[in-house]
Amino acid sequence: MMIFRYVADERNMNPSEEETQKIMQQWQSWIGGIAGQGKLESTEALGYTGKSVDGKHVVTDGPYAEVKEIVGGYLTVKCETEAEALEHAKGCPILHETGGKVEVREIMVF
Amino acid sequence: MSHNTLIPHLFRTEFSKIIAVICKSYGLQNIQAAEDIVSETFLAASETWGLKGTPDNPQAWLYQVAKNKTKDYLKRKILFREKITPNLSHNDSQNPVDDINLSENNITDSQLQMLFAVSNPILPPEAQTALALRVLCGFGINEIALAFLSNKQSINKRLLRAKQKLRDNKVEMVMPDKNELANRLSSVLATIYLLFNEGYYSTTSEVKIKRDLCFEAMRLLVLLLNYPPANLPKCNALMALMCFQASRFDARLDESGEIILYENQNREKWDFELIEQGEYYMNQSANGDVISKYHLQAAIAFWHTRVEDETGKWENILQLYNQLLQIQYSPIAALNRTFALSKVKGKKQAIKEALKIDLKDYHLYQSLLAELYTDLDKKKAKQHWQMAFDLANTEGERKVIKKKIMACG
After folding, report:
1. ipTM value for the complex
2. How big is the A-B interface in CB pairs under 8 Å?
3. Which residues of chain A does B329 touch, with a Cβ-Cβ cutoff of 8 Å?
4. What DSSP line would sit under B341-364, residue for residue?
5. Domain A2-104 is in which class?
6. Is pTM, for the whole model, over 0.95?
7. Angle at the Cα of B215 (from B209 to B216), degrees rounded to 5?
8. What span, in angstroms and rounded, lies between the C-alpha atoms of B328 and B40?
9. Which of A32, A37, A38 is facing B322, going by the closest CB pair?
């Protein structure tokens, strides 16, 4: 699974319509490429806001940790090796964002 | 119309109606008997009309004879049940031998129910199509064999097994209720589109049969659309898709039945009325909040009805394929997406992505690579054309590829 992380800032929180279009296209192209290889399992984008629940069932605003680092979404890709997954990750549009990172994790099978 | 042409024509239209009505009244398990009854009716027609001339109302004549034969059959069956096997359990309806209702409404209802019955997911896809062709479209066994590039025996076996399965699973003729409808609709649409594809992509050389398959599929979908609870956006989307594709039917094949590729088609042979119809259905489908794969495919087909120089054509097609592949992967969609990519980002980029796709044994994959390498690397283009040739399934395809190989020099 590839988890997309980035740092929320003025620019990526309020994109212009043109930027949004361009970004959407980049994502669709990248995802489409993976889907075209028959390797897409699933993918979702996550919204900008949310809530957190802690051990004492206290609900707080926002998905943020310390710095405004957010998880933007995920994509599950079918691969034989971690190296393959990393290759796919290199094309991910999140890398163009501020502090953009892709975390590549193997899904556990029990 | 002389009775020689009238009877085959009536067979095509009335066969399915009468069978559907009989099965609705007396149960799907009697489907074989229904077929036999209607076949006998038509046999009687060809014998009688040949001697005494065509009746004033041929349809009414057929219906009356079919009704009588059904009554006879049921009387014999009840006799069998009451006198000979009184202890065997049976699940035939307890209806007395009453009049079979061949009103227009009942015919439509019955055919709809039959459509849902043959689209039952317990039947394998080839069985669904064969059964639909036989029972809903009135195709003869020979015609079905021709359409599937098979033979009479195989088709008969397939039909027999399908009917047995329906019997074993006690499948009934009934309209699914509202909650079930959405689910069952997927199978029905899949069956209808399968039927359409048999005609559109069929490798049989009988052009007439191909066209008939396409139009039968469209006729069945219209039947479905006229049933308000089934008049959903995705059904309209499928109709749009079929209209757009069918609009190129005349342009796709030359006089000898060979395929003419899209770039080489004579656009004047495109059926613009069908394109307009497609647009109508596309508008109807632009409702609700679900984008089905049919919506995407219809949109792609729509763009193909537009000439190249319209801006955004290939960018749009590319994005549509991106979305389609996320909903459902298929090798054809993957290849088409790559082709669209080449139009938007150029051949080199497309080749890069194409090489990541693992479809080496698929002749269309090799053809795509050959097309992409053309003008870039003659040697590679020829190599891929050769591989495509070796993998091709039909004479028609091999002919087209041979020409490409020759053009490489």
Report:
1. 0.75
2. 44
3. 35, 38, 40
4. HHHHH-HHHHHHHHTTS--TT-HH
5. alpha beta
6. no
7. 85
8. 45
9. A32
